[in-house]
Amino acid sequence: MQKQTALVLTIGDTSFIIALADTEAARNLSSRLPLRLEMAELNGNEKYASLGSPLPAKAETVRRIEAGDVMLWGNDCLVVFYKSFDTTYSYTRIGHIVDARELAKAVGKGNVLVSIHPQTTQE
Questions:
Q1: Assessment of whether the complete model's pTM goes beyond 0.70
Q2: Looking at residue 3, what is its pLDDT?
Q3: In what helix (H) or strand (E) does residue 71 lie, and over which residues does it extend?
Q4: Cα separation, 69 vs 84, whole angstroms
Q5: How far apart are CA 40 and CA 112, in angstroms?
Q6: What is the mean pLDDT of each run of 10 residues along the chain (123 residues)?
Q7: d(CA 79, CA 68)
Q8: What is the H or E stretch that residue 24 is in?
């Protein structure tokens, strides 16, 4: 089995590549794909959804969130950040959206339905 190093997050007609972090949580999430999640709005800078079952969390104080960061809060809450800001919270890294310039526009206001699936490569 090939090691998954990137995922695709799709919102409507827009897709984003997530470069995976080298964490057990990211590898475990990859093994659960594909996923469809309704993500709720929080604080005007993030969307979040419960995964329904825990991932192996290893939280660290990240100090700064960058737009495009994909993190795990606690052990079963997936968070996609669409604005950058400083924080004192601790998260487990899942990955980072490679090009997040259109992310805030794509997620819009309120809840959003997203799908996450493996990145397919042409051989």
A1: yes
A2: 65
A3: strand 69-73
A4: 9
A5: 7
A6: 80 95 95 96 96 96 96 98 97 97 94 93 52
A7: 10
A8: helix 24-30
Report which secondary-structure segment, H or E, holds 37: strand 35-42
Identify the architecture of domain 6-118 in CATH.
Beta Barrel (2.40)
Amino acid occupying residue 106: A
**Is 47:82 a contact under the CB 8 Å cutoff?**
yes
Cis peptide before 34 (omega within 30 of 0): yes
Amino acid letter for position 117: H
Lookup: tokens for 112: 């959003």
Side-chain-side CA neighbours of 26 within 13 Å: the count stands at: 21
Give the torsion sign (CA, 51, 14, 23, 3). Answer: positive
Q: List the structure tokens of 50.
A: 């419960």
For the chain, the domains span 6-118
Cα(46)–Cα(75) distance, integer angstroms: 17
d(CA 24, CA 28): 6
